[in-house]
Amino acid sequence: MENIVLHKADTRGNANHGWLQSFHTFSFANYFNPERMNFGVLRVLNDDTVSAGMGFGKHPHQDMEIISIPLEGDLEHQDSMGNKTVIKNGDIQVMSAGTGVQHSEYNKNEDEAVKFLQIWVIPNKKGVTPRYDQITLNKEDRHNKLQQILSPNADDAGVWIHQDAWFHLGKFDKDIATTYNFKKEGNGLYVFVLNGDVTVGGQALNKRDGLGIWNTENITIKADSDSEFLLMEVPMHI
Q1: Which pLDDT score is estimated for 57?
Q2: Residue in 124, 68, 130 with CA at minimum distance from that of residue 100
Q3: What local confidence, expressed as pLDDT, does residue 182 receive?
């Protein structure tokens, strides 16, 4: 179908730095694929594993919305705005880089790896004042239903970013299904399977597969096994 793009887990870019194992859904660093530059304003979807006690030293960002979703372990964040925090599974972190910010990310633990998703979304406005936020989510709110974890609105559920984007997490038992209705006309939806097997719009997906779909008003998602997945609705035009 012309309104669907499928990214199987084993087709992603891969960087193994010893201390860091990273899988790139879209072009990033040394992985370049002209057919995988982005999905609308979703620019980066990295699936990272950082070894015990290791991490990313201080580095700069500008005019990007950066979202981190920890999957396992504890990730320590420090930035030039004076924040020093730890995020763990159940949390979501957002940073609007805006006019410029520097940050570092380290595995807080000396005895286990940390796994997290690093997501970059191109903002709808440049030059904003840098900001940082993190919240702890109630995991029960995604059991067999969709839990909103990000939106464009500061008063809405989850964190917010400078973009007309909505993220949801779901943790579904086998055979549970739901319909996702788009929040904004013209947006697309990128589905990333964290665990298990799901069928999205008739397409079977497995662990760490990704599927983007657009030019539709809603999408049916069905769990073929106990599963967890992330939904990212984003504008398709930068």
Answers
A1: 83
A2: 130
A3: 97
